[in-house]
Amino acid sequence: xxxxxxxxGTRNGTPGGxxxxxxGGTPDGTRDLARELxxxxxxxxxxxxxxxxxxxxxxxxxxxxxxxVVAPRDAEDVAAVLRVCRERGVPVVxxxxxxxxxxQATGVGVVLDCTRHLRRIVSLEAxxxxxxxxxxxxxxxxxxxxxxHGLTFGPDxxxxxxxxxxxxxxxNSCGSHSVAWGTTADSVHELxxxxxxxxxxxxxxxxxxxxxxxxxxxxxxxxLVDGDLALLRTGYPDLPRRISGYALDALLPERGTDLAxxxxxxxxxxxxxxxxxxKLVRPPAAKVLAVLGYADESAAAEAAHTLLPYRxxxxxGMAADxxxxxxxxxxxxxxxxxxxxxxxAAAALARAEELCRGASTxxxxxxxxxxxxxxxxxxxxxxxxxxxxxxxGSEAWPGWEDCAVxxxxxxxxxxxxxxxxxxxxxxxxxxxxxxDGCIHVRIDFDLLTAPGIxxxxxxxxxxxxxxxxxxxxxxxxxxxxQARAELLPKMYGTELVGLFERFKDLWDPxxxxxxxxxxRPDRMDENLRFAPLPERPVDVExxxxxxxxxxxxxxxxxVGVAKCRTSAPGTSAVMCPSxxxxxxxxxxxRGRARLLHEMLAGDVVTDGxxxxxxxxxxxxxxSCKGCRSDCPVGVDMAxxxxxxxxxxxxxxxxxxxxxxxxxxxxxxxxxxxxxxLLNALARTPLAGAGKRLGGIAPQRAIPELATExxxxxxxxxxxxxxxxxxxxVLLWPDTFTNYLAPEVGRAAVHVLEAAGLSxxxxxxxxxxxxxxxxxxxxxxxxxDQARTVMRRTVDALDPLLADGxxxxxxxxxxxxxxxxxxxxxxxxxxxxxxxxxSVRTFAQTLEEQAPDWEPPRVDRPAVGQTHCHQHAVLGxxxxxxxxxxxxxxxxxxxxCCGLAGNFGxxxxxxxxxxxxxxxxxxxxVRDADPGAEVLADGFSCRTQIGQLTDRRARHLAQVLxxxxxxxxxxxxxxxxxxx
Length: 979
What we know:
- This protein is an alpha/beta fold.
- The chain contains 43 helices and 22 strands.
- The chain starts with 26 loop residues before the first helix and ends in a 7-residue tail after the last helix.
């Protein structure tokens, strides 16, 4: 991986960092702790503000600030951390992917980041169907390794692409396939554990495993079980998703004295996992998805348990208010996603059809296409993020994310739950594992004001009683943590909760492991992550229209589900290229959002907009905008970065690249008359000096300037005969097309005219002060200048677009800037919104304005790149259809090309830029048939391909223009239109 920064001590390699902002100890104590930890372990130790800020939150409502972060390399490092912390009385919190929803992955002492080094699959025994894994192994990595043997790990939370096995074991996670394969506890065989006191043990099943424990623990477990057999046998509700509390009933002799199961779900409060032996399952060879429609969620909930006799793999429920505009769903107001398996595709289909015949639905559909199945499952998997916004855009939060009731009681429970919501004036969108009676929901609690927090607490107490009244569990998947542990006496009674406390004291008598969680918990309304944020909106430049103009609300969008930490993107996804290149949390969308949150909070990151921690994290943000579309909650880190850079450098000297590339349109306009001379100089040693002066990476070649800009060519050309006087297409002469790639503009004109459309340029585009979208100023945070440029553009274009005209933009990044950045920087100008709505891509223009035109047939395979901004803002459906009509077969790469405008040209970014390109784009180009067309509508994408391969990429307009018959040929064609 490129640019993976590893340090010992703090970020700069010297202990100490900024310990005075470390809650929970004096400055000297924190420095001494850091020094002692650094001397004891081989992994990284940090007390730097930026590293601690990354660990303050998980995916819950809670925030706790650690004193230090350690990334252990092995079990010996874990033991050393525990020894140092034990001697100093410092708590320890093990952490995996940080996607816990109840607060148990946050802590005030030392956080053990298990994801950096402890991610090895130690062994995999296909015949025994077991695997030995370290706690930081990502679930999808285990599933991929097991899949090579036709096996998988049964539990599969929606965060499977980034959650870790250690976190799953800590929380007893489940997932959509739990109706078939149970919870994580059902898949655990043995656990290697270190206690806070330093004892090493292997927790397994049976009398022999119990006898192998250290004597203190062995005698204590036996005494606890033997002394309260009746309570352990009668105190637990019988339901498939009982996750709350400690599973002490697993220690009963009739249940096999299963210590591994009893420790699973203990949320890091009893011991630190260093290795686990887990069980694997063999999934059916074929799967079919039956989507069953119902009138409403209550009807779906009532039906869910009746489907269990058909032995489904999943029974997942969602209602219309969550699904949104998903296509292909049968008629109804709520749906059950029921996956059926079989030894063959025909057998799976037959089982699905049998299920549909037996189900009483409003409508149903059976989905056999794997790609369509994946698309529907993505709707479900993204729900934990999308549910955080209500239909009107208001915020909703976890807290009652996963309670469970007996499946047969689910319909009645949901009706009572809805009544309770209405009683408190709250709204929520239930969804989840209906077949197991487990409901996920985000509720629009007001967690920012004292009255709202009181209502949150009162509602929670009442809902806890409602769950218990229905025979349910406060937690059905994500654990109790701080969110629900306070309510455990309602569910279990004080006597059984007393046993939990005794069990905790047996394993952790010093109370050093994850204090405040599960046993003797902090109150559910303490440590809320919103408390330190500013009470009033901060002054900002962008309008943040979807967040009420409030930058804090925009940052709060990140709820921590961490889809940005996926190590491999989907075929079309973009987010988050810098995380995939570096593997570091601070270079993920979530990490950056966390740092911005702490910047606003001000007690860890203390320098506000001048923060170097935030600046450094944003430095490797490519401003690809991938998170704007791929993040389930629509975090827009490119905009946040531009906002931050504007404030950070206000009144200060900027990096050289901000002057050279941030103001590129000015330089290109000034350089155009001397293009031949400058092109020649770019091939001499003087280019090196110019790159150093401009902050440009020395590895980069300087793109060649056009000797005849597009606008100059346009001014000299003669319109074809028969062209209407009033142009049907207003073509935007963007900076890149005009000065660097005029061949794209010329090709687009030829194709548009061949389609029977007349083309015009904005008049100001032919004057000495050309128009600009402001993109380069925005990406470098020069927002005052960007706003000036944008106003000039709006002034010039609005008269041309006032009657519903459309603006065709060839460069995707410029189109995205006009569509989003311009109206968000000019939020009070209605003309800006009008202009944004008028923007069309080349393919969209042809599809809308020449729907009957048939493009020339190219008939060859195509590879290349969909521009990130196109993916995130504009969509590529029209481009896909146009390519198909032209016979350009094959899909383009997802991910990011890595050049990303100025990013890949800036000094210090080259390695990350190349790593991003090597992920998908460059391999697809290298592996392509020599006759394949390499497509890239973005100038950056074409430049990256040209500089890193021996292939030349072209805009779709160039490919179509080349395939057009010549004018002489068109004249000879009968009934042809003259172009």
